[in-house]
Amino acid sequence: MIIRSLCLGVIGLLAAATAGADSMLDAATRAKLEAALSSEIRTAKERARDANRKPVETLAFFGLRDDMRVLELFPGGGWYTKLLGPVLRERGKLYVAMRTERVRELIAAAPPLDKVEALDVNPDMPMTARRGIFELEEMSFWLEDLDLVLTFRNAHNLTPDGRHNLNMAVFEALKPGGLYGVIDHTRRHMEPDNNVNGRRVDPVRMIHESEAAGFEFVGFSDLHYRSSDGLEKEVGDASVTGRTDRFTLLFRKPVE
Q: What is the DSSP letter of 215?
């Protein structure tokens, strides 16, 4: 617990300001998000995760507005896509990219997601010798005017070099002043790799890597802090899965 407190203290010192502490969704965006939360396209299992994932507070911290051009990375089965798509449908735009096989089927079948665009971006991701960890080659999303890029619990699956290549592609895709929101499973600060922490990321390292790609660190939120997670278990362990301590970081592409 002392190590975790020190880690959060370091993050606080690095931040020029803790963004999102007073962030609020504007009325139109909030209304659309609340409607999306109640949508029939969401399953009972997805709704059950709302209390843990705190989507309203999370998206408020990341500065979501209904007129933004947003890219969601590694959308998986579309938990967040089902929220972002309807919010951005009329005035904004949602793109999804990276491992989009499952979400493409969802988009085709759900009318509220008919404006979501799955990018044909499939860079090579060879598996490493470590379970669940992949390389990622240099890549591009072939966009340069995005307002916001989001990734939810995905950075841990990449090597440091792979994260660098992803961060550079995100930086390229954002317009000046654009935002980059990252949530992932917390690793103890400076803890070496071991058999159980491979799918966790040191948040201080994540800040350093993102700054190395050109981003400004805006701030962090403790929305997904979980005191019950001692940071000692693999994230798939039954005692912590779905309840891991997760860092929530926000970065900005500098305005030139």
A: P
Is residue 17 within 8 A of residue 90, CB to CB? The reply is no
Question: What is the percent of the chain with per-residue pLDDT over 70, rounded to a whole number?
Answer: 91
Kindly state the helix (H) or strand (E) to which residue 246 belongs, with its residue range. strand 246-252
CA–CA distances in Å: residue 20 to residues 66, 199, 227, 250: 17, 26, 21, 9
Sheet holding 69-73, edge to edge: 117-118, 93-97, 69-73, 146-152, 174-185, 246-252, 216-221
> Lowest-confidence range among 106-110, 176-180, 192-196?
192-196
pTM for the predicted model, two decimal places: 0.90
How far is Cα 77 from Cα 114, in angstroms, rounded to an integer? 16
**β-pair partners for 246:** 185
- Whether residue 12 is predicted with pLDDT greater than 60 in this model: the reply is no
SS3 134: strand
Q: What is the pairing mode between strands 69-73 and 93-97?
A: parallel
- Split at pLDDT 50, 70, 90, the class of 193 is confident
210 vs 79: CA distance, rounded Å: 25
Q: What is the CATH topology of the domain spanning 2-252?
A: Rossmann fold (3.40.50)
* CA gap 138, 116 in Å, rounded: 25
**Domain extent listing, the chain:** 2-252
Strands 146-152 and 117-118: unpaired
d(CA 112, CA 114): 6
